[in-house]
Amino acid sequence: FPVTKTLHNGVLRDMTTDEIAEMKATQADMNAALKAEATAADAKAAALASARAKLAALGLTDAEVAALLGA
Q1: How confident is the model over 13-44, as pLDDT tens digits?
Q2: How many CA within 13 A on the CB side of residue 66?
Q3: Which segments within the chain are labelled E, that is strand?
Q4: Residue 1 clears pLDDT 70, i.e. is over it
Q5: In terms of Cα–Cα distance, which of 44, 67, 43, 42 is closest to 55?
Q6: What is the b/e burial string over 21-55, where b = at least 16 CB atoms within 10 angstroms of the residue's CB?
Q7: CA gap 52, 61 in Å, rounded
Q8: Which end of the chain has less neighbouring CB within 10 Å, N or C?
Q9: Contact assessment for residue 38 and residue 59, using Cβ atoms and an 8 Å cutoff
Q10: Is 6 exposed, middle or buried (0-12, 13-18, 19+ CB in 10 A)?
């Protein structure tokens, strides 16, 4: 069930239409930011995997790749 109450100065009251709209907009912004972070993390992981594969294709050992990439 959606939250439609707010505590203001110790008084529990119903949220106004504007407050509900603001809350929903904030939630949407937060969800978008979380999705963008996840997408960026996935892209970084894919780039790292690609770099490892390319270095291995050049003949570097796993130890050499780890030394270069710091992992």
Answers
A1: 999 999 999 999 999 999 999 999 999 999 99
A2: 4
A3: 5-8, 11-14
A4: no
A5: 67
A6: eeeeeeeeeeeeeeeeeeeeeeeeeeeeeeebeeb
A7: 10
A8: N
A9: no
A10: middle
pTM: 0.68
The CA-based angle 50-53-56, given to 5 degrees, is 150
Residue whose entry in the numeric block shows the structure tokens 């270069």: 68
**Residue length, the chain?**
71
Tokens at 60, concatenated: 């570097």
Distance CA 46, CA 59 (A): 20
Residues 69, 51: contact at Cβ < 8 Å? yes
Scan for tokens 């930011």, then name that residue.
Answer: 33
Over its C-alpha atoms, the chain yields an Rg (Å, rounded) of: 24
